[in-house]
Each structure stands twice: as structure tokens, then as C-alpha cells.
Design goal:
Elements (H helix, E strand, L loop, with lengths): L1 H20 L3 E7 L4 H14 L15 E6 L10 H10 L20 H7 L3 E6 L6 H7 L8 H11 L3 E3 L18 H7 L2 E5 L1 H7 L5 E5 L22 H13 L6 E7 L1 H7 L3 H24 L4 E6 L3 E2 L3 E2 L18 H15 L5 H12 L9 H16 L6 E2 L4 E2 L1 H14 L1 E2 L5 E2 L3 E7 L7 E4 L2 H10 L2
Parallel strand pairs: 1-7, 1-8, 2-16, 3-4, 3-7, 4-6, 5-6
Antiparallel strand pairs: 2-15, 8-15, 9-14, 10-13, 11-12
Helix pairs in contact: 2-11, 3-5, 3-16, 9-11, 10-11, 12-15, 14-15
Length: 466
């Protein structure tokens, strides 16, 4: 009898321990393009801004469980965001450009779909478009990431509760580039309330069963503005996270799964624009703070996982000498994209009548050159040569990256600023570097160590009991 009682007690304790580890509320943050040096560089940048050498910790880097993950796809040493998103969503490798389809074009079930089947409410959110590769990998199943219209049509099929992002890329045009029925009445018929901005979200939240939150009319449907370029009334990733939590907890006692993508870290890395990169990492950390406040109220039932799909740009912290000058980046007032626009506007306004002094005034205002950021003779010469070719000789060749075209003088100014900061880049595209993983809360110990990115959703499924 005593032996039976002892065995029963052990079984009950084991069951209780397992239950205590189950995550009722799961936050899955993905910093697109955010490698180890994007994180470390941001922390060193914050420390230098504060006047010291070292690091100023981001919130998510203080999480107790830390790991690193490999990111290669099934067909390439260097993954694209679709294959990486699929790995992070399904736990299976696939070919570059696939959206939660395997190499034989079979549908792969996602962690979000499993959470929904397990009775959780589900939210998929991003700082770029709702139909972009990373968010799409959690709810859609398509052979190519560029099938934006078809991806949007998968939203009703998944039947998730909440989506958010900047907008939709191809709401009226299918993959064959033919005009197609608008996705908006289709989403409306499927029960989704489309709201534009947080004010409309708040006014319609109580009466809506399912919701899609995008930016207000007249804004960019491709992405939210970079944090460094943001205006006071712009939609932010933190507001999206707050809205998602409010919506997913409304009348819900079964928990939720929420994916949040900081999508423009990647875009800034494609541009090799370090100041904008660091501001985007801080911006995602601010969104994570929103989730952390929720975690503090439900510490035994909440899991927060933070990772990346791949590294972008091959960011190097140091270019020869044993010094960094990251604090110089604090003088940059806007992204390279915005600087490019400002220089293009100057050219339209004044043309060949633009003087070197006009350009110096603009670069001083936008980047702090000459006033706060001293330049060497060679650096000033590079800028002047670019001005001469672009404005005087009228030879203007824009540099193209994946998400933008950069005016040549703006490109040289960015290269000079990067050199002053003592940073380097190996690429304007993705790399095969490790990405970091951080976790806190119920089941977070599962995320310590070194593993492949396909392990992350599998461990979330285990922690969430899906």
C-alpha cells in the first residue's frame, strides 16, 4: 500500500510540474535580418550614447534562456525570408521562396494553426505588409512568396483571430498579373473587420469577432515607417502588440498565440544603414516590453520567445583598429531612404544651380556632418566628387537594394557615416550567420543551447501543449 501511494504521489507531482510548464499565452517575436551583431551593435550603440564603453542591455537580452540557431534552407546555404519563415513556423526545411510548403509542394501545418486547433486565439502581426513572407508563413500555403494576392486569400482559410501590418501589397492583382476580385470584400464576408489605425481599432474592437489592423489611408501599404523617420501619428509595432493583446484576451479564457515580426530590421540591413538598423532593434525591443508587461501579470502561464529568421548584411563591428565610434550614429536624423528623398527633392528644386554649400547644409542637418561629426579630407572629397557627378555632370545612377533605390550622393554619405562609426558590411543581402534566441517564462528552458531554426516551433508546440 505504501509503495502504491508513493508511486501515485510521484505521478501526481510529475503531472503538476508538466502542467505548470505549459504556456497558455505564447509570444513569438521575429526580428527579420537580426543577427548576433545587430543585437550586440545596438547594445554597444546605446552604451556609447550614454557616454561609456560597453553594452546597454536591451530587455530581451536579459531573458534567462539564450540560444543560437542555424538558418540554412533545404536548397540553399543562405536562406530567404520565405524558407526561413517556413522553418520558424512549421519546423520543416523547404526551398527558398516557399510559403509553408515542403520541397514537394505539400502543405506544412504551422505552429499557429496547431495553436488554433488547440483552442487558442491566434494573432499574426508585422511592421511590414500583412502578406509579406514572414507573417504569410504562419497562415498561408503557397509555392512562391510573391503570390501576394493568393497569400491574402489564405487568411479566411486559416481563420485566425487577428492580423496586423502596414497593408496589402496586391489586393486587386493575382500572381499572373491579372486584375482579380478585391480581397477586401472577401475578407469582410469571412467575418473580418478591417480597421485603419489604433483609434478605429479601439472603437470597433468590442463589436468585432475577427480583425485586421492596418495603417490609415494615405500611408505606405508596404511597411510602417522606420522608427528613425516616424511621425507622432504613425502606427507603431508597440501599438500593434498592445492591440493584439487587447483583442486576443477579449472574452478569452483559453489563451493565445501571437507572432510579432520586426520586419524592417532586414530592410535597413539590405541598405547597409546602421543607425536605422539599431533604431529598428530598439523599436522591436519596445514591442517586447509590451509583451513583458503582460508576462509580469501572468508569469507562470506566459512564454516569450525572441529570435530572427536570418542575418542580413554581414554586419561587422570594427574595421581594422581597436575602436568603434558608434555614438556618431546618434547624429543621423533619418534613414538613408529619407536622405535619398531629400537629396532628390533638392535636385528637382534647384537642378544644376544646386551648390556644394546647399549640399553641405543638408548633410549637416540630416547627419551632423562637419558640425557634430568631423570629416577627414578624403571623406569630404568623396562627398564632393559624388556631388559633382550627380549635380554638375547630371550623371545619376541609383543604387538598388531589395527594398529601395538610393540616390548616389546619399549612398556615399551613408558609406562615409558607416566608416566614421567603424562598422563594415560584407553584403547587401542575407548571410548564413547564426541568429540568437532568447526566452523567458513557461517552458523557456527548452530554448537554451545550439540547434537548428526548425527546432524553435517544435519547442513552442511542446511548451504550449499544442
Amino acid at each position: 500500500m505504501k509503495k502504491y501511494t508513493y508511486v501515485l504521489l510521484i505521478a501526481l507531482l510529475s503531472t503538476t510540474t508538466a502542467f505548470a510548464q505549459q504556456a497558455k499565452y505564447v509570444f513569438y517575436f521575429i526580428g527579420d535580418g537580426m543577427g548576433v551583431n545587430q543585437v550586440n551593435g545596438t547594445e554597444m550603440f546605446l552604451a556609447e550614447k550614454a557616454g561609456r564603453i560597453g553594452t546597454e542591455s536591451l530587455l530581451f537580452t536579459t531573458f534567462p534562456a539564450v540560444g543560437i540557431a542555424t538558418t540554412y534552407s533545404k536548397t540553399n546555404s543562405i536562406t530567404d525570408s520565405a524558407a526561413a519563415g517556413t522553418a520558424l513556423a512549421t519546423g520543416t526545411k523547404t526551398y527558398n521562396s516557399a510559403i509553408s510548403m515542403d520541397a514537394d509542394e505539400n502543405i506544412l501545418p504551422t505552429v499557429a494553426e496547431k495553436a488554433k486547433k488547440a483552442g487558442r486565439k491566434v494573432g499574426i502581426t508585422t511592421s511590414v505588409s500583412v502578406d509579406h513572407a514572414t507573417p504569410a508563413a504562419f497562415y498561408a500555403h503557397q509555392t512562391k512568396r510573391s503570390m501576394y494576392y493568393e497569400i491574402a486569400l489564405d487568411i479566411p482559410k486559416a481563420n485566425f483571430d487577428f492580423h496586423a501590418g502596414s497593408g496589402f501589397l496586391k489586393p486587386h492583382t493575382n500572381y499572373e498579373k491579372q486584375e482579380a476580385p478585391s480581397i477586401y470584400p472577401i475578407l469582410d464576408k469571412a467575418g473580418y473587420t478591417l480597421v485603419k489605425g489604433v483609434d478605429e481599432f479601439r472603437s470597433k474592437m468590442a463589436s468585432s469577432q475577427k480583425m485586421i489592423l492596418i495603417q490609415k489611408d494615405g500611408t505606405d501599404n508596404e511597411s510602417l515607417p522606420y522608427a528613425i523617420d516616424r511621425n507622432a501619428d504613425d502606427l507603431t509595432l508597440s501599438q500593434i502588440t498592445e492591440s493584439a493583446i487587447a483583442f486576443l484576451t477579449k472574452g478569452n479564457s483559453k489563451g493565445f498565440f501571437l507572432m510579432v515580426e520586426g520586419g524592417k530590421i532586414d530592410w535597413a540591413c539590405h541598405n547597409n544603414d546602421p543607425a536605422t538598423v539599431f533604431n529598428e532593434v530598439v523599436d522591436m525591443d519596445n514591442a517586447i516590453r509590451v509583451a513583458y508587461e503582460f508576462y509580469k501579470k501572468h508569469p507562470k502561464e506566459t512564454l516569450i520567445v525572441v529570435t530572427a529568421d536570418h542575418e542580413t548584411g554581414g554586419m561587422g563591428l570594427g574595421i581594422g583598429s581597436y575602436v568603434l565610434n558608434l555614438k556618431s550614429l546618434a547624429n543621423q536624423k533619418q534613414s538613408v531612404d529619407k536622405l535619398s528623398y531629400a537629396i532628390t527633392t533638392l535636385r528637382k528644386d534647384k537642378g544644376t544651380k544646386t551648390t556644394w554649400e546647399d549640399v553641405k547644409t543638408l548633410l549637416s542637418e540630416k547627419l551632423g556632418f562637419w558640425k557634430e561629426v568631423p570629416l577627414t579630407w578624403k571623406q569630404e572629397r568623396r562627398l564632393h566628387d559624388a556631388f559633382d557627378e550627380s549635380f554638375i555632370q547630371n550623371h545619376v545612377v541609383f543604387k538598388e537594394s531589395l527594398y529601395s533605390k538610393t540616390e548616389p550622393l546619399a549612398e556615399v554619405a551613408n558609406e562615409v557615416m558607416t566608416q566614421i562609426a567603424r562598422l563594415g558590411w560584407t553584403s547587401g543581402s542575407h548571410t548564413a550567420e547564426y541568429v540568437p534566441v532568447y526566452a523567458i517564462g513557461a517552458g523557456s528552458k527548452l530554448f537554451a543551447g545550439k540547434y537548428d531554426n526548425t527546432e524553435i516551433p517544435k519547442r513552442i508546440i511542446k511548451a504550449g501543449g499544442y
